Amino acid sequence: MGGKHRQQGKYDNKTAVVGIVEKKKGVGRVKTFTTKHADATVTLPFIKANVEAGSTLQTDESRIYSRVKRDFTHEFVNHSKFEYVKAGVHTNTIEGFWVS
């Protein structure tokens, strides 16, 4: 999140934000945090601390989530292949949170 200034292939004035949302109509909770880098070393501990083991995660195809299948059922859509909804799996709930 943040500005649009780009330096050496990266946005130098952006803040990485990681978020999760519970998909329960009308009562789903959202948790977010900011970090210097959104990678598996910070994202996985956040997920494990805030999501009940055995839950189903719906994500995009990011490699950040490659190890979540150890503790969760993992379903994903592949945005790089223009896949946004697949058999009810999507990331629209959290994406809608970012623009609200």
| Spatial order of strands in the largest sheet | 1-2
Q: Structurally, how many domains make up the residues?
A: 1
Could you list the spans in which at least 5 consecutive residues all have pLDDT below 50?
none
Percent range for β-strand residues: 25-35%
Distance between the termini: 13 Å
Rg estimate, integer Å: 14 Å
Percent helix, as a range, is: 10-25%
**Structural class from helices and strands?**
alpha+beta
Helix run count: 2
Sketch the major β-sheet. 2 strands, antiparallel
Based on DSSP secondary structure assignment, what is the total number of beta strands? 8
What is the assembly state of the chains in this entry? single chain
Give a quick summary of the entry.
With 100 residues, the chain is an alpha+beta fold.
Task: Give a quick set of tags describing it.
8 strands; alpha+beta; single chain; globular; two-stranded antiparallel ribbon; 2 helices; 100 residues
Task: Describe what this molecule looks like in 3D.
The chain is of the alpha+beta class. It has helices spanning 40-50, 92-99; strands at residues 6-7, 10-11, 16-21, 30-35, 56-59, 73-76, 85-86, 89-90. The protein is built from 2 helices and 8 strands. The protein is globular, with a radius of gyration of 14 Å. The mean pLDDT is 86.
